[in-house]
């Protein structure tokens, strides 16, 4: 029997932070060095008075529609989809305008997946698969399977989880 | 610890069939008697050449936005939400235009729920809660908790599941 695997979207296969940083530069003329983002989410890195602005970006219709795909994600997910029962699970509900954008983005970049494999939820606590790949450990709180923390600047200080550094690394570990 | 409960939308708390029947009457001038729908989904009840038309209805933006709420669902879900960790889980992904409509419909009629409690998926096989209420037994295939079949004209012949006849009955069984 095939094992099931849940794969997150934002900061795992999709890059919303690159776009948020570009918009932030457009609006405030400031970029962030890797040091300034080390151990922080982008929202944590901006001044307190700009946090609502980041939320506004994420709430903009279309924001999630044209995000960059993480390197090698297409190729590796295509292979994972042969070996596992693969699901894309995204905590998208906080940004309802993202729902259709995320659906369309997945259809465009991962045409080998079907709508049956997409799950857009609020809270991932009711999702149970054999394996989960996610960049946020809060999504592992109730998870009973094998969790892989997808490496990102915001989670560098977190310990106690096996990491996936990038999709090439995922291929080594899971294929 | 609170038990978790997953509650379906269509034909459990929302009435898409009433609307589909109205649209069908508008387009073809035909209504269906309870006998004609007994043991059948609405799509199964219409002539083969009209099945795509029903799919077209469900794919129409706005179709799911103003559906009737099932009797007593608001009141009973409000109480269930006090007693359980409640999630609304809908296999909505087949109709991507329904995603935002369903979110807005839930916000309108169930304002005591938050977006964290909404889960719009393709296939419910990765959803695990202690209890699930659904009108389609295919959603119970991989489910390990206690399943309640929400009674409907299309599932009258199905045996082997404890039924919930309506939301008053749910209150008796679960509150």
From TrEMBL, chains A, B:
Gene3D superfamilies: Deoxyribonucleotidase, domain 2, HAD superfamily/HAD-like. The active site is at 8 (nucleophile), 10 (proton donor). Pfam families: NT5C. GO terms for biological process: pyrimidine deoxyribonucleotide catabolic process. One of its GO terms (molecular function) is 5'-nucleotidase activity. Belongs to the 5'(3')-deoxyribonucleotidase family. This is 5'(3')-deoxyribonucleotidase.
